[in-house]
Fold this sequence. Notes:
With 342 residues, the protein is of the alpha+beta class. It contains eleven helices and 14 strands. It has a single domain (8-84, 111-336), classed as 2-Layer Sandwich (Alpha-Beta Plaits), CATH 3.30.70.20. Strands 10-1-12-11 form a four-stranded mixed beta sheet. It has a two-stranded antiparallel ribbon with strand order 2-5.
Amino acid sequence: MTKSDRQLAMVLDLNKCIGCHTCSIACKRLWTRDEGMEYMWWNTVNTQPGRGTPRDWQEMGGGFRDGQALPGKLPTRGEFGDAWKFNHEEVFYGGKGEKAHLKPQGKDPHWGPNWDEDQGGGEYPNAYYFYLPRICNHCTHPACLEACPRKAIEKRQQDGIVVINEDRCRGYRFCMEACPYKKIYFNHAEKVSQKCIFCFPRIEQGVANACARQCPGRVRFVGYRDDQAAPIYKLVDKWKVALPLHPDYGTEPNVFYVPPIAPPSFDENGDLDPSKPRIPDEYLVSLFGPEVLEVLEVLKAEMAKKREGAESELMDLLIAYKWKEMFGGFDRDPATIEWTGS
Ligand code: SF4
Ligand code: SF4
Ligand code: SF4
């Protein structure tokens, strides 16, 4: 196992995510605009329950059980959802007025990165959904790193960010098979694997990750795991309300989630039944492990306190009155920096 001196982490409050995809676009604009990266979304936001991105990624294997690596499937470009080409020329410059409409070109697409967006699960009147944004988890025990025979994947000593050295990568894609979160993409133009870099060039300048800083929902907290004064430590270690996604995958993720609370279900008479949660407990347990049930109780108790006018450090943290305090000191304005490089 590769231990770093310190570990950067992200906490996402799923009760505040509005599924706007600003995070995905912020990342795309910054990092994945080159040839071969068209289909890449290092940050994805999927509706749960749903098949996710890549399609059915939770059934693709990889990761570890009892410390032993498990075989994993290589996700295809089609399963990620290829980039569609649209008839922009025809609509904007074709002189057809309102007769032309934007539509994907070529064969009708049958899958995309958000194909089942807002469908969710459950039956009327107890249907439910929530959004699950995902990036690389910059795992403490990264399956991708262990699977690479070229030693092209590094976990940075100073901050635990997991990066791929493209000069060493030969495009074998064992990392893509091994990552149980399926968060690595293959660049078919450059013939190398690529993934979220936790915005390390920004981090090194004291600027929070683009997906976090641009988030209008104030969903994402950033910082070092061991910074006891910052929200990450308080949410993960002090209040213990932020949990990793699929701890059962054995990679020890460093991205954590405050689980979603939904209203209770309606009974057959149309009355709310507080004993029956709208999002089934077993579904949340399948994503975040059994601790999630206790976390929901803590969240509900602190919400009730706050509603009654009492003090709640936890609610104040999650409300995030002061936006910049979410970033564990990485609160520098990127516009004040003279960036070099392409
Ligand atoms: Fe590697 Fe996947 Fe963990 Fe990212 S999420 S560090 S790609 S195993
Ligand atoms: Fe993209 Fe940076 Fe967010 Fe990673 S941390 S998903 S590189 S914006
Ligand atoms: Fe959710 Fe924030 Fe991303 Fe919007 S930008 S989808 S609110 S995490």
